[in-house]
Design a protein that fits this description.
Layout (H helix, E strand, L loop, with lengths): L10 E6 L6 H15 L11 E6 L8 H20 L1
Parallel strand pairs: 1-2
């Protein structure tokens, strides 16, 4: 996921394995995660790369739970990168 085609934007990749579910379920989880990550792109370092790995329970989780988990993880990543 990129904002523009330049070289200084953050990049985000998603890993959604077959353990999460079938093709339709995996793509649904990836779309939901992509939607949740988009507002956080500005917080990531200039040319940083973030990889989001979806675990099997993510297929049953609500968007609120996915968003809360993602926020908590991003908070930890940003704290570590600031240190």
């Amino acid at each position: 996921m990129r904002l523009e085609s330049g070289g200084d934007e953050p990049r985000v990749g998603f890993v959604v394995s077959k353990a999460v579910g079938g093709s339709v379920v995996r793509h649904r989880v990836q779309r939901r995660l992509r939607h949740l990550v988009r507002p956080h792109l500005e917080q990531l370092a200039g040319s940083g790369t973030l990889v989001v790995r979806a675990l099997p329970p993510s297929s049953q989780a609500s968007s609120t739970v996915l968003g809360a988990d993602l926020d908590a993880c991003l908070r930890r990543v940003l704290e570590r990168s600031a240190a």
